[in-house]
Amino acid sequence: MTDEMTARAIRSAWRASEQSLYSIGGGDVERYQLAVRLVRAIVDELGGVRSTDELVDRWPQAAEIVAGALDGTGLTLGALPLDQVAGAAFALRHAALQAEETRRARTELIAAARSDGADWVVLHETGDLLAGFADPYGSTRMHLGSGLAIVAAVQPDLTTGVAVRTLTVVRLDPHTGDLVDDDPGIADLTYSDSASFRSGEAALREVVEETAAAERIG
């Protein structure tokens, strides 16, 4: 298996290739359309790859994989750079695999929390609330009974640009954590300091629980 530092460099190169490939100037529509078709064909060729780690390990065979896609479709690279086309395809497949792995991890967290008899589950938490933009905080806490989730984030104030803490309630699928409604009309709050943010978060949990109880009764 490729070491993590090398894997990060490879993934970064894929993203750069994707950006370069699709930054086709001069209104060359045919070239752009060919790039899209080629990338799609290579992604199909990578359909049997089932994890992001496996995808990284397959990168040294990129030229062979591209050749297989070309043989299967009858397409040609034309003037398109092989490394950019391959990198863009690997980037697209990586995004899909990453989404699958994230969804699978959420589902496992939810199932474990239900098994433990919990009322809430933390689906995501990163960063440091006190670090501002140096290490931006973000979290998603879902109420298991309703799927209502509190999304916390640190982001710039639109007027001053300083870091503010925000709390938003969204509705997720209570079994998978997939987004169902990004604005169920419960809360969209902003705080200037960490202490008020934490108090607001605790109060918002109570609001969510009360809303969930009312929905069950209704």
Radius of gyration: 22 Å
Strand content: 15-25%
Stretches with pLDDT under 50, minimum 5 residues: none
| Inertia-based shape | elongated
User: What average pLDDT do the residues reach?
Assistant: 94
Number of domains: 2
Task: Output the helix-strand order.
Answer: HHHHHEEEEEEH
Cα(first) to Cα(last) distance is 53 Å
Largest sheet: 6 strands, antiparallel
Number of DSSP helices? 6
Q: How many strand elements?
A: 6
Structural class: alpha+beta
> Into which percent range does the helicity of residues fall?
40-55%
Provide an overview of this structure.
By secondary structure, the chain is an alpha+beta fold. It folds into two domains: 4-106, no CATH class; 119-217, no CATH class. It is built from six helices and six strands; from the N terminus they run αααααββββββα. The protein has helices spanning 4-22, 29-45, 52-58, 62-73, 82-115, 194-217; strands at 120-126, 138-143, 148-156, 163-172, 179-181, 188-191. A hairpin with a 6-residue loop joins β3 (148-156) and β4 (163-172).
What does the secondary structure layout of this molecule look like, with pairings?
Elements (H helix, E strand, L loop, with lengths): L3 H19 L6 H17 L6 H7 L3 H12 L8 H34 L4 E7 L11 E6 L4 E9 L6 E10 L6 E3 L6 E4 L2 H24 L1
Antiparallel strand pairs: 1-2, 2-3, 3-4, 4-5, 4-6
Helix pairs in contact: 1-5, 2-4, 2-5, 4-5
What's this entry about, in short?
With 218 residues, this protein is α+β, with helices and mostly antiparallel strands. Helix content is 52%, strand content 18%. It has 2 domains: 4-106, no CATH class; 119-217, no CATH class.
